[in-house]
Amino acid sequence: MNGQGPHEERGVSHDPQHALELGCRILDSLLEPAGFRLVPGKAGPSSGGPFARAEYVRGNRRLELHFRWTLGMLRYHVGEQSLSHAEYVDAIAGVSAPRSYPGHVAELEEGFRHLRADLERYGEMFLSGSDEEFTALVQKAEEMRARGVHRLQQVEEAREGADD
Q1: Under a CB-based contact definition with an 8 Å cutoff, are residues 96 and 61 in contact?
Q2: What CA–CA distance (Å, rounded) separates 126 from 31?
Q3: At what angle do helices 131-163 and 85-93 cross, to 10 degrees?
Q4: Residue 7 to residues 3, 25, 37, 74, 113, Cα–Cα distance (Å)
Q5: What is the C-alpha end-to-end distance of the chain, expressed in Å?
Q6: pLDDT tens, position by position, 64-77
Q7: Which of 44, 80, 90, 145 has its Cβ near the most Cβ atoms within 10 Å?
Q8: 8 A C-beta contact, residue 34 and residue 128
Q9: Which helix (H) or strand (E) element contains residue 24?
Q10: What residues does 71 pair with on adjacent strands?
């Protein structure tokens, strides 16, 4: 890639802050009516290339967005608790549930369209649920993670036993 991001190779100027602002327009019509407002965050150079951050905020709820070459890390926060996008969808709908994000991203805005589709499908609890419901979801995600780690340990033990 010659030290450039995927969109620079195609001749697209790379300004993460501008791309984040444009992408958030796709989310605004869903999140603003639910009482969320966009709060710009840090932006600038880093060792992995330029980046930008923003959050949609309502009271003690935040949807954290990171953008570098595409829309990247997403976290749902309620108070001190948080879940990644994958953890959130897994806990809401199961690990095999269909999801749009991250999906294949050929254009800068596609990640935002994918996120919007997932929010429309699975976001009701975050957008309008109670803090207690989110706490229960975090506990479910932690239990799922623990079962996943336990299952991986069982697979490893079975492999080691087969090697003997």
Answers
A1: no
A2: 11
A3: 90
A4: 12, 20, 28, 21, 17
A5: 44
A6: 999 998 999 999 99
A7: 90
A8: yes
A9: helix 16-31
A10: 67
